């Protein structure tokens, strides 16, 4: 179990694509974290690099739309970016051991990047959560406790200590892989294959 | 002819990988340019983002080594990065119409990223060039003329005007694709297929 660690941030568009691809898998350890503090540490700003670099940002939206279409997955440019997702992140953190963690994370991403809902809003998060557990209100209440805030802070420190500088990030057999484009490589590494892009040598 | 435009910078590790993949193709328009002025415009520094962000930088070297291995292509972390490549860039600019442009560009990249030679050194560049043309000295002399400097400056302005923010960048059917990871997508677009990653839907 848990061959693949998947580190994601709910504001990250490429994390959305990876969450869609991984939602139903049973061998994934889901790791919610906050990219903002890591961006602050690296760039001196917690804002998205896509906002700080408008050309790269414009391209990102085109690229994510292309990639989503290739996955057969709907995608809409949200009316606000990045959206605050502290509560959703804390709930995902609390729910990492639940059997519905994958579909729940995907549903939060879809609320943001398909339905353009404010995932910073407690009502939105609670409504999504109710589809997965009868204990939605209990999860929301626990997520607000200072102890959970401290644990999520610790999680983000762990991300930084392990070399994470963006999202999504995967760990496979102790090695870091960055970006939705490297999910296949991480999976190949898990299977003991060379992580490079096998399709270049593949005859179909 | 020239279905695919390939914009590259000799200091760019991912441009190296793309140059290796494209060197022998006949349908490529090679576009040498300088990323430094574009980085200055965007980031306020002409240094590589990989140097300005050490975590991302360390990961890049691991990632490029993995990708090179998957291509069956040698790769060595150079002892200096990024290397000055103004003369080599001007020569590539002058040679874009030559039948040996692809193999020449690949050879300059290999001098840097396989043999760890200083591609900023005129002797290194001239030696590489001699393998492709008996007029190596004439190319080097022309590359130093102010008119060529002005034309390369214009080229870099064109890159910026067309939305380029990094390298490698491809244009296929008027659309921009950024990064070695999107060369396959650009090629699919050229063939009139959806540019998204086809391997996800492919049965082998």
Instruction: Give the proportion of residues in helices of chain A.
Output: 40-55%
User: What class, by secondary structure content of chain A?
Assistant: alpha+beta
Low-confidence stretches of chain A: 198-204
The overall pLDDT average of chain A reads 92
The span between the termini of chain A is 31 Å
Which percent band covers the strand fraction of chain A?
Answer: 5-15%
**Quaternary:** homodimer
How many helices of chain A?
10
Q: Enumerate the strands of the largest sheet of chain A in spatial order, edge to edge or round the barrel.
A: 2-1-3-4
Which series of helices and strands of chain A comes N to C? Answer: EHEHHHHHHHHEEH
Shape of chain A: globular
Number of strands of chain A: 4
* Radius of gyration of CA atoms of chain A, rounded to a whole number: 17 Å
Q: Could you describe the largest sheet of chain A, including whether it forms a barrel?
A: 4 strands, mixed
Question: Largest chain-chain contact?
Answer: A-B, 35 and 36 residues
